[in-house]
């Protein structure tokens, strides 16, 4: 009689890292509700790229004191500031587009301001003729890193847009933001990451 071979062991369930889940969520991000649909291949590339960037950020955070979530007062300060800055700068009304620009003057600098200006140049071309009003509400600020002088977060937003007398449309989006301290009680947005998305009809993701 031929001895029976024991059945091969069943493979265990591979661990699923929260990092990958976050990267998948972020990879589909859009900003200003003007995002062109990407192919499956580009989506996969964005996921891979975001995983790598998140891993690098985690490595950098491990080398410096990270107060995010641990220091509740500091976390609340920067998340409240980010909420105010994003809602002010990323909302606009066709009857007063300069209000959004004033908000950008107050809250953005460096690459973030350059990126914002590229996006807003496209908005300005359409807003007046189509009578667009866009309201941005920050739903959540996920603070990733917080040191004495720098903060990095993923900002989740809801946007409601109206064109003339038409019905309102809503959408959700998210992007990464970096802020640096500007004085004792304030911050400035210095960098924005739209995860490789391209505004429709534009020049691609703003780069500065």
Write the layout of secondary structure elements.
Elements: H1 18-27, H2 40-62, H3 72-89, E1 92-93, H4 97-107, H5 110-130, E2 132-146, E3 150-163, E4 169-181, E5 187-193
Antiparallel strand pairs: 1-2, 2-3, 3-4, 4-5
Helix pairs in contact: 1-2, 3-4
Explain how this protein is built.
- The protein is built from five helices and five strands.
- With 208 residues, it is α+β, with helices and mostly antiparallel strands.
- Strands 1-2-3-4-5 form a five-stranded antiparallel beta sheet.
- Helix 1 packs across helix 2 (40-62) and helix 3 runs antiparallel to helix 4 (97-107).
- The longest helix is centred in the N-terminal third of the chain and has 23 residues, at 40-62.
- The termini are far apart.
- Mean pLDDT is 77; it is low at 1-39 and 198-202.
Beta-strand percentage range: 15-25%
Number of helices: 5
Can you write the helix and strand succession as a string? Answer: HHHEHHEEEE
Question: Poorly predicted ranges (pLDDT <50, ≥5 residues)?
Answer: 1-39, 198-202
- What is the alpha-carbon Rg in Å? 21 Å
Give the % helix: 25-40%
Q: Structural class of the secondary elements? A: alpha+beta
Output the strand order for the largest sheet. 1-2-3-4-5
Mean pLDDT: 77
Can you summarize the main beta sheet?
5 strands, antiparallel
Q: Give the distance, in angstroms, between the N- and C-terminal Cα atoms.
A: 75 Å
Shape: globular
Multimerization state: single chain
Number of strands: 5
């Amino acid at each position: 009689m031929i001895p029976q071979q024991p059945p091969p062991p069943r493979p265990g369930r591979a661990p699923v890292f929260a990092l990958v889940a976050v990267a998948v969520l972020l990879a589909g991000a859009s900003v200003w509700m003007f995002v062109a649909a990407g192919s499956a291949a580009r989506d996969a590339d964005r996921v891979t790229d975001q995983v790598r960037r998140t891993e690098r950020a985690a490595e950098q955070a491990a080398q410096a004191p990270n107060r995010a979530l641990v220091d509740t007062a500091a976390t609340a300060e920067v998340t409240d500031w980010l909420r105010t800055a994003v809602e002010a700068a990323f909302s606009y009304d066709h009857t007063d587009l300069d209000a959004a620009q004033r908000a950008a003057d107050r809250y953005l600098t460096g690459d973030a301001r350059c990126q914002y200006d590229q996006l807003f140049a496209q908005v300005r071309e359409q807003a007046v003729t189509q009578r667009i009003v866009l309201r941005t509400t920050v739903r959540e600020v996920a603070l990733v890193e917080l040191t004495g002088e720098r903060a990095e977060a993923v900002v989740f937003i809801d946007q409601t847009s109206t064109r003339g007398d038409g019905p309102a449309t809503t959408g959700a989006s998210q992007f990464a933001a970096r802020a640096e301290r500007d004085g004792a009680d304030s911050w400035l947005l210095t960098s924005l990451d739209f995860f490789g998305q391209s505004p429709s009809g534009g020049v691609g993701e703003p780069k500065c």
